[in-house]
Design goal:
heterodimer; A: mainly beta; B: mainly beta; seven-stranded mixed β-sheet
Chain lengths: 110, 112
């Protein structure tokens, strides 16, 4: 069965610092992988997705993620975090029955 | 840009009552989904719907739940005899290809 693990429940970074949010997945075939962001009281906004091809994918708001099959990982990165990036981030795998990780809450210090 | 719309944004109901959550998917999309998120927890898959029938459903989606596409534009989730633990944010999503889901802003259901 497909599943997603986000090992970090809460991460705090300083504004301007780099960011990496971890995601590990379990899936029987080549996975479809996604990162979503959720601001408080809001819906889910797609940041980026991986279906196939180039393992480094670029998304909106300056985010990128790298698919590493050997590590079953799809970590999200941003070189310089902005205060507006504070939110909950969800990694997801699959398609017809997309499974989400538990989320990582990002706090940005001034 | 077209978007998925959900109504109402907040629904309060008494335990044991039936509720219907409504969604208008993006107009040319073919695949429809409901997810829920209990406060502070992960987003959980409930059901997917394609070609006027359920294509996948999770263990959460028991006989208490049903989905319907009553006309060409709406997609509804009905919860019969609501329980306190049904309190959650319910998200509708739609997709053209079943690979790329577009989510609505959710309906917050509060069961008292």
């Amino acid at each position: 069965a497909q599943s997603v693990t986000q090992p970090d429940i809460h991460i705090t970074v300083s504004e301007g610092a780099s960011l990496e949010l971890r995601c590990n997945y379990s899936y029987g075939a080549t996975p479809y992988l996604f990162w979503y962001v959720q601001s408080p009281g809001q819906g889910l906004q797609l940041l980026l997705k991986y279906f196939s091809g180039d393992t480094l994918v670029q998304g909106i708001k300056g985010f990128e993620a790298e698919f590493k099959r050997s590590q079953s990982s799809f970590n999200l990165r941003k070189p310089s975090v902005h205060w507006s990036d504070a939110a909950e981030y969800f990694c997801a795998v699959g398609a017809k029955d997309m499974r989400f990780g538990a989320g990582t809450r990002l706090t940005v210090k001034p | 840009e077209p978007e998925v719309t959900q109504t109402p944004s907040h629904q309060v109901t008494q335990m044991g009552q039936e509720v219907i959550l409504r969604c208008v998917p993006i107009s040319n999309h073919l695949y429809f989904y409901w997810y829920r998120q209990i406060l502070g927890q992960k987003v959980e898959f409930l059901v997917s719907f394609y070609n006027n029938e359920i294509s996948e459903k999770s263990e959460i989606f028991d006989d208490q739940f049903s989905v319907e596409r009553p006309d060409g534009s709406n997609f509804t989730l009905k919860i019969r005899s609501t329980k306190l633990e049904d309190s959650a944010m319910y998200f509708c999503a739609s997709s053209l290809t079943a690979r790329d889901l577009h989510f609505g802003n959710g309906t917050r259901l509060t069961v008292t």
